[in-house]
């Protein structure tokens, strides 16, 4: 302590006039109390923050039965790619790379479809595009990859997004399974149907049928209220497409502008009548599981300096990302491990988070994760989740990003930090921390300090 005060006094002596240094009393030494009260440890300069200036999604529609049942995957992706540049005025030729998360389609085919979608959206041939697959977190991984590339200086502006048509590409295993799998239980568990992993979570962690059905009821109720009040309008890009009558083959041109999987009025009584799907004595049903869906999303990212130079509004700041591994047999617990890791990486505590978007792959795992982390129910999936909205695997991370950031913007400066997370097939979890773009400035980015507890790391 004495050494620190001596250093301060020496510095102050240099700042005072030559005459009467010791007599000057208007400048005094004091203990710094800002350092450890900062909400996170900055690793970059303020202007080097990677920010989101636009985040949009298509409506999410029921696979094979919904509004996109006759829509090509590239026609799902093109509208959101076009939207992020048109609505911001960014020249498509300035995009350094486009990264799209996608899961089910054959890799080479989907890569070509994404390239085609970029052309449909008006991007020149000079703009590259690639796909990434980390299963259910692919859309979020795409955004994180673009953030990392911008931080590394590979380019200044990029787009991360996601695409899935579960109508066109249903979940299926192709080819033979390596017989070596019999020798490793963890490898065997990577092949478990996702519904069985849900049953494993419910059984291992004591999540009963009623709890799961209650979570599903709340998801539909919140989503229905959000849709009815127009809560999703700012994030959804309407899609011009066609619907084909399966009996007559007649094509009808339509504009899809709303999610079509939400079921207003869903009740516990209704859900309790549903039979279990994966295990006769189990608890997982079609009603308390995420819907099989079609959809796409896109997120435009750049450094804060670039956004300010262009006078672009800042929706959010990407603060941290974490991907973790868990037991494949209970892959649904991934968010319970990934969320603390991402929050720690951001230098925050879980109570600092104002909103959570946690993918509801199954009500069993969603309920477990929320309870394990002790989350406030009022902060989680405030506009419903995948049980009501749907889960187009590769697009979910981009969908959640758009939903979270637009909701944070609506709530204003009191809603500062948000988290997105999801479980990942084969036993993983991913999470990212975002900060609301309008909640900070370069000069007052610290928490209020109630009393001086000598928090500075120098005060030892």
Automatic annotation (TrEMBL):
Residue ranges annotated for the Thiolase N-terminal domain, each copy included: 50-304
GO molecular function: acetyl-CoA C-acyltransferase activity
The entry's keywords: Acyltransferase, Fatty acid metabolism, Lipid metabolism, Peroxisome, Transferase, Transit peptide
Gene Ontology terms: biological process: fatty acid beta-oxidation; phenylacetate catabolic process
Family matches, as Pfam families: Thiolase_C, Thiolase_N
Residue ranges occupied by any Thiolase C-terminal domain in the UniProt entry: 313-435
Pathway annotation from the record: Lipid metabolism; fatty acid metabolism
Domain of life where this protein originates: Eukaryota
GO terms under cellular component: peroxisome
Documented EC number(s): 2.3.1.16
Localization per Swiss-Prot or TrEMBL: Peroxisome
Principal location: other
Family: Belongs to the thiolase-like superfamily. Thiolase family.
The protein, known as: acetyl-CoA C-acyltransferase
Species, as recorded: Physcomitrium patens
Gene: LOC112287303
């Amino acid at each position: 302590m004495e050494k620190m005060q001596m250093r301060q006094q020496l510095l102050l002596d240099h700042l005072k006039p030559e005459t009467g240094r010791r007599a000057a009393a208007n400048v005094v030494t004091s203990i710094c109390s800002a350092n450890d009260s900062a909400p996170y440890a900055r690793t970059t300069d303020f202007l080097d923050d990677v920010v989101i200036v636009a985040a949009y999604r298509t409506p999410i529609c029921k696979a094979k039965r919904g509004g996109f049942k006759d829509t090509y995957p590239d026609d799902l992706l093109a509208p959101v790619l076009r939207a992020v540049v048109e609505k911001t005025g960014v020249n498509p030729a300035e995009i350094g790379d486009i990264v799209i998360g996608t899961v089910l389609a054959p890799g080479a085919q989907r890569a070509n479809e994404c390239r085609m979608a970029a052309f449909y959206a008006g991007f020149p041939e000079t703009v590259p595009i690639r796909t990434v697959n980390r299963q259910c977190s692919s859309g979020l991984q795409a955004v994180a990859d673009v953030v990392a590339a911008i931080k590394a200086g590979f380019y200044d502006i990029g787009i991360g997004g996601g695409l899935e048509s579960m109508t066109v590409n249903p979940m299926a295993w192709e080819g033979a399974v390596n017989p070596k799998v019999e020798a490793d239980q963890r490898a065997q568990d990577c092949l478990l149907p996702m519904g069985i992993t849900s049953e494993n979570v419910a059984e291992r962690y004591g999540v009963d049928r009623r709890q799961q059905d209650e979570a599903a009821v709340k998801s539909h109720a919140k989503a229905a209220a959000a849709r009815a009040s127009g809560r999703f309008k700012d994030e959804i890009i309407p899609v011009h497409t066609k619907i084909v009558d399966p009996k007559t083959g007649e094509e009808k041109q339509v504009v899809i502008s709303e999610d079509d999987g939400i079921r207003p009025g869903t009740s516990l009584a209704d859900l309790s009548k549903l039979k279990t799907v994966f295990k006769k004595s189990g608890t997982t049903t079609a009603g308390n599981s995420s819907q099989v869906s079609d959809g796409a999303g896109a997120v435009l990212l750049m450094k804060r300096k670039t956004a300010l130079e262009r006078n672009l509004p800042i929706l959010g700041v990407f603060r941290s990302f974490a991907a973790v591994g868990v037991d494949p047999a209970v892959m649904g617990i991934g968010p319970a491990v990934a969320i603390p890791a991402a929050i720690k990486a951001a230098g925050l505590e879980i109570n600092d988070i104002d909103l959570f978007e946690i993918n509801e792959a199954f009500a069993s795992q969603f309920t477990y994760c929320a309870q394990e982390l002790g989350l406030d129910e009022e902060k989680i999936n405030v506009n419903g989740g995948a049980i009501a909205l749907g889960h187009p695997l590769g697009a979910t991370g981009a969908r959640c990003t758009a939903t979270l950031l637009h909701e944070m913007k609506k709530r204003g400066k009191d809603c500062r930090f948000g988290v997105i997370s999801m479980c990942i097939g084969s036993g993983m979890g991913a999470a990212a921390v975002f900060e609301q773009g309008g909640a900070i400035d370069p000069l007052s980015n610290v928490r209020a300090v109630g009393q001086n507890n000598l928090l500075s790391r120098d005060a030892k």
